[in-house]
Amino acid sequence: MPDSGSPGRDVLIIEDNRQNLELAQFLLEEAGHSVRSAGDARSARAELERQVPDLVLMDMQLPGTDGLELVAELRGDGRFRHLPIVALTAHALRGDRERFLAGGCDGYIAKPIDVAAFALQVEALMPPHPAAGAGPAAEVD
Ligand code: MN
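# manganese (II) ion complex -> structure
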C-alpha cells in the first residue's frame, strides 16, 4: 500500500445536521477513510473514549454545546491534547477563523462543504501516517 497518507484514516465527525453529516461522511468514505459520527457532545465523548481517531471534524454549533467549550475540555485531557480538531462551521464571518484557531482548533473548513475539495482539505490537516514516524513500530505494509 502506498504511504500517501490518504487511505485508511479514522475520522470522527461531530455534527448534528444530518445532511451535512451524510455528505461529509460520504465524501471521506469515497476517499478511503473510515468515518465515525456523533450528533452531540455526549456521544462525541463516548466515541472518543472508545478509540482516539486520527482527526476530528467538529461542527461548532452543537445542540446545547458551544463547540469551543468542547474543544477546551478535550485540550484539557492529555489523551486528546494533540488530537487534530478541525472546525466545521457555517460561521463565515471574518474573525471566526481566528477565534476557533485561538480556541484550540487546528484548522477550519467552512460550510457549505465544497464537494470537490472537501476530502483534500481534510487530508491536508491530517497528521502524518503513524507508519511514517512516531508511534509503535507496528504498521508495516
Ligand atoms: Mn450544528
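# post-check
Residues 18-30 form the longest helix (13 residues).
The first strand starts at residue 10 and ends at 14.
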